[in-house]
Design brief:
about 425 residues, mainly alpha, Hypothetical protein af1432, 3 domains, 20 helices, 2 strands, about 60% helix, globular
Amino acid sequence: MSLAPYACDENLANIRREYLDPFEGVSDRSPFERDRDRILHSPAFRRLAHKTQLFIYSEGDHYRTRLTHTLEATSVAKRIGKTLGLNLMLIEATVFGHDLGQPPFGHAGERALSEIMKTELKLPGFKHNHQGVRVVRKCIFQHFHLKKDSPEKMLRGLNLTDDTIEGILFHTNVDKKLNNFQMYKYLDIVPERINSYTLEGQVVAIADEIAQIFHDCEDGLKHKMISLEEVLKSKLYLVAKESWNKQEKNNEYITEVIKMVSTPTEEDKLSSRYQGVREAVLSKSLRDFLIYDVIKTTKEKINGHGELKTRKIATQVVDFSPLVKEAYLYFKKEIIEKKVYNDRRLITMDIRGSNAIKILFQLFNNEKKLLPDEVFEEYNLISGELGENYAKIILIDYISGMTDRYALMMCKDLLPYPIEF
């Protein structure tokens, strides 16, 4: 597939990595394909399978994890990127890596680590996108250093391209204070910029939002945190329905689907399977509606923007239309955040996860010899170079890299008294 003129090219003159890469230009894979494969084969990627998306892994086999979320976000991002003529390899590499910095227990884990960073380390906080950059640059050792004059024999990080790392950082809001923290600082990032400098990175950011909001909606419906009727009364559905009614293509089919979803017969209401299909079709239809809106809006913005130069894009180009954005944000706030994320069962799970993280930090901070050998070695190295306070970031690295079940198991194994989570 030929790339659009505003897509991120893979001209070797424009590809930048932290270290010299001996495979650049001689491999059978493009630079971004190698980025993707390095992420895919990393232990941090494998651990996503047992990290919370909404429900802790033990709550059921059919709920999403960080890995299934990543795959769903990949599908959405590539669909948008293909239609816009963007570089699908960069999109895939970025979306595969976008959640590598996510800690166990989801948002609760992120809040707990942020609290620890502020109170114990006297640092600005913790955000998974900043930590994701740290993971791919500092926390993985999978290569030897090929420069003979290098003081280190092992290569830190995955040596990804700047474009992939920039997309990982900007897939969600960047914290200016964290960016100034030495252990997270990367690239010459313009603090005022809030979006990726490539359209591929911007596509990943919006695909992450779309995927998350609708699988959390589906899980919320399945767990009876919200009702189908609440979704059908939302402004997002009403805006989508109005748009569907105006479509000429497949209008008869769309009209019939809307009728089956919104006005089931009394007999249909008694069927659990029918209800399940209604929920699935509604979620899929709304997700498709947002994707089409993003594609249409972005094409209009590109056409009215003049010449767009990749790696120099300073504004948000990939976006929803104003009407849809308003409806989407209201749906996210009033239905997903207020009713799903604030459900008593989720709050209970969040408390369990948050407590586990705080216990682990105190245990490791009080007795460093509880750490695995390689983590203990890294702690001593950083402590000698930058001091004890900076070295505590190694504890954050270790804990944030854990899966839900490993963190809970460690608590039970290390505490001198039995505890139930």
